[in-house]
Specification:
The chain has 305 residues and is an alpha/beta fold. The protein is 45% helix and 15% strand. It has eleven helices and nine strands. The protein has a seven-stranded parallel sheet, sandwiched between helices. A two-stranded parallel sheet has the order 7-8. Helix 3 links the parallel strand 2 and strand 3. Helix 1 packs across helix 9, helix 2 packs parallel to helix 3 and helix 6 crosses helix 11. The chain is globular, with a radius of gyration of 19 Å.
Amino acid sequence: MAYTISQVQDWNESLRSRRLKLVALFVGGTSGIGKHAAIRLANVVDQPTIYLVGRNAEAGARIVEELKAGNPNGSYCFIPADVSRLSDVDALCQQLQVREKSLDLLFLSAGALAFSKQVRLLEAAGKPRVISVLGGGREVSIEDDNLDLRKRFSFSASIGYPATMTSLAFEVLASQHPSISFIHEFPGVVATPILKKSMGGVLGTIVSLLLRPISISEQESGEWQVFLSTSPSFPAKGSAGPDAATERGIKITQASTGEVGGGFYILKYNGQDVTNKSLMAQLREKGFLDIVWKHTLDTFDRILA
């Protein structure tokens, strides 16, 4: 179901009495969606521990100070890393394992992270969740001999292939790790500075104005992200009971497989299930769960060799 912003705000405010502590890792948390998700989470959890990962140390330092000002009871740390480099990702994961015994939330709004390195920490948490902010609901048919788009490339494929492969990989992970909840999300049109940076000041401003009627603010996006990160509407496969989500109008959501509370959810930012059930069924029937998973592991092995 799609939730309203008032329902989301009500749930988020209730976290003050529900969650005393929470350990979260935000990859891409120095700007835009990840940044405002971290800020809002720090405001509604009494004693949060938040790690921010990004390349811009100056921006990271500013956000850490902002988090401290908003909630001095929390612990905040910026870790400089280029998540497009798997060697940096490996070092980051090792560093986190030294510092923490568990990880409640892995929030990916930039790049990718070697999930296997974080399994132990996630499974040690009470209700762990992994969120990828990318293209949930934008999945397309894919070709098994062109997963890296080196044979045939198009702009639409560069959007659809990563979305599809993320959803397939997360479905595999949800079956392998039933104590962890997985979400692949489409964040909507968020009014971040990215347009001005990518298109230039004048053109970016014009496009931003044209998109304003269908966009949401960074602050509102932060509300939605905290809800997706903490709501019982999206439980892990192994923890979905009949009364797991009955408070405050919250209902358990249907997973990508069609199973209610199935562990992996393809969502719009407002919590609406946007799974293309027929497409996902076709991809499963053609063996793409195994094909994409093997391709992913082979890619990591090749780069890290």
